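Handout for the seminar on molecular recognition.
Each group receives one record of this type.
Step one: identify the two inputs.
Step two: read the structure output and locate the region that could contact pyridoxal-5'-phosphate.
Step three: write two sentences on what you found, then compare them with the reference statements printed after the record.
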Amino acid sequence: MAVPSAPSEPVPSNGGMEHEEEAIRVLKPRRAAPADAVRPTRAEINLGALRQNLRVLKRALASSPAAESSPAIWGVLKADAYGHGAPAIARTLERAGVDGICVALLEEGLELRAAGIEVPVVVMGGYYGPHHRGLEDAIEGDLVPVLYEAGQLERLSHIARDRDRRVPFQLKVDTNMSRLGCSLSEVDELLESIASTPELELRGLMSHLACADSADPAPTLAQLRLFEDVRARAASRGLSPSVCHVANSAGALAFPASRYQAVRPGIALYGISPFYGRSTDGLSEEIARISSELRPAMRVRSEIVALRTLKDGDRVGYGHTWTASGERRIATIPMGYADGLSRALSNRGSFLVRGRRAPIAGIVSMDLTTIDVTDVPGVRLGDEVVVLGSQSSGQESAVITAEEIAEIVGTIPWEVITNISRRVPRFYREP
Ligand SMILES: Cc1ncc(COP(=O)(O)O)c(C=O)c1O
């Protein structure tokens, strides 16, 4: 298996290859290294906050009505651990006692194994390419593949026979999200074929919840009923996967019945409530308390690299969308949309300087953003600027949350944090 060991150019995954024997080459993402950082723009990842969030979840999810013991916690580390840097996050969570890890892509799983991660890793995306190679790589890399269609089962059983051993996998069932997973009309046939193929070890049965964060419990309860029905159909064929799991952060917290033997929290681990934007409607006091105990693990900061005084009528940025009314001080920050700062923040978002809010003035450009610091006393070149997270200075203190940015941009906090691009180096710190 050719996993490049050093940062490398992206290479196509089996692009144009006809021969299965040829090794699949997986893209190993290039990540800005702290040692190479010249710009002061960086994401600081607080590993203590991550551990605290894991502890909060473990305590909150201590029981699972559908299982005998508390559910295992399988942290969701797809998309480079939601932008936090998967290897470091996996190492921290593994040491803190996480039971397993879920990723979306084969290459994400291989990256974790190459980083020495030993806990079970489930590849949820279910895509291994059209040939044997991807699935073989998953098995060779000690990853647990998620499968959902007959062709995949057939390929896996070939691999098992070639190796003369049983291979574990998980089956994903679509319980009315209509995204990924075998449909309820196909599930009997698949279960039948799994039951009659001894080399296939059905280790897990999973589904995904579409509306667990919503105030209306009905769609989630309906999905859980469908999942229960599939479990019963599996049991009637003598199949009893050791781990059933359906719950994301919101499901795990709000629907105890969804916890089964394992839960798959993502956003809550990174310190953001999955119920953001929902005031207190329908949220129990307990969930509100748990949400308040989560600590955001990511802070994004930079520095002022240029500072100028504008006179009345001077214009700022592309399209001249901002005009100085009276004398104004404008600071330039070396971070733009190529770093994952949404252009939709132009003239709408703010950053923090000296513990105060400074509004974005003009259009966010690819590498630079300008802010109005007229109301920041004593502002100077080199001052720290916080783009996401909190900042204190003397008596002043303020915070910009992923929820706030999401609201302005019209997206969700998940997108805000995963968007912080690989060009921004991640610096890990202990509190
Ligand atoms: C299949 C699956 N499980 C679990 C999660 C984790 O969800 P969350 O970040 O809302 O906890 C995701 C994320 O989107 C997912 O796609």
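Reference statements: Residues 1-21 have pLDDT under 50 and may be disordered. The radius of gyration is 24 Å.
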